Write the structure tokens for this entry.
Amino acid sequence: MNLKYLIFFVAIFLSSCTKSNYDVVVVGGGASGIASAIQSSRLGSKTLVIEKSDWLGGMITSAGVSALDGNYKMPSGFLKEFRDSLVSYYGSLDSLKTGWVSNIMFEPSVGNRILNKIASSEKKLKIIFNSKIDEIKNEKDKWHITLKSENKLNKIQAKVLIDATELGDLIPILNIPYSVGMDSSIMYNEKIAPVNTNDIIQDVTYVMILKDYGEDVTIPRPINYNREEFICSYDSKECYNTDLKLWPKEALISYGKLPNGKYMINWPINGNDYYVNSIEMSEEDRIYHYEKAKQKSIRFLYFIQTEMGYNNLSIDKEEFLTKDGFPKIPYHRESRRIKGKVTLDLNYIKAPYFQKNSLYRTGVAVGDYPVDHHHNAHPNYRELPKLDFYPIPSYSIPLGSLIPENINNFLVIEKSISVSNLV
């Protein structure tokens, strides 16, 4: 090859490959990912967020679950900052109380814009969207990451790496021990757990954000539609074979009512939950099942329009600006769970002061929600333990549950921390 052409191609390669150093790199710009990155930058660390989509917020924005749970009387930390930003946008705290599933309801696109606005004000924080990790390795106590972004390769070094992905994507790559599915009752001495371990995870959902169009916008009858699939989603007077509490159709719709005449459809009672354990699947298989989850939601929409009489409601194509109007990602309720320095099980939550280790003394976050697992879309759900709204007190998350046993300078957050399946 002519030397000048060789030099030319080398120059092109070098110009497309940049190298940057950071104190902290967070992989995943979901709810916990962006919150931790903002806090990291505020503490003085040069921080990078790597996000594979073009949105921030994960579950509460990109997945469309724009309804926050928690203790509304004790707002603090970044949750308070985010809530106050919503209040500033919508005008009052009461303006967020549009549905009955939560006291903090908002449009996903608004949540995304607020998170971007907060993040953009942090000088030590950088976010790279639409990016995926090509290679990752640890050498001499530093993380070396090769990132694919806009047809470019970015070489990144970091002192600390954080996995904040929806499914714990870095965990198997780094050979970190983890578990998937339900633990047996003897594993952590949790009486309400199943007798035997299994690989069953909670249902996923492709949420719909519907808009009131003020006229008949009934969609064409979907392929494979059968009204019987959803006849027990509400108190239809035609449902005779269910062990679930049924609500009036008005409650089903108002459950996820959002500001500005929109409705979040994330209905667990014979609604649009879909069962698949996609955690270890190939990308091709995931896409196949996520499309099936979307089709189930479309069938449910048709049922809402034709059987419940809400033909004025349909998908808001402007909310996510995706081709089909669906959220950018499905709602994942469950992920891989690492084996951490400590494991938070149900006993540490029910009776924290009477356990072998005082994990409550090392709390770095708080939680306030009952055990509430979604398994109704599983074909054998009646054989599984009933895990809806099992009461527990408020609790704290110990620091050790974020730290894997066998690797340094690496933290795991989001849904992949070291906890039992029930927790």
Observations:
- The chain is about 20% helix and 20% strand.
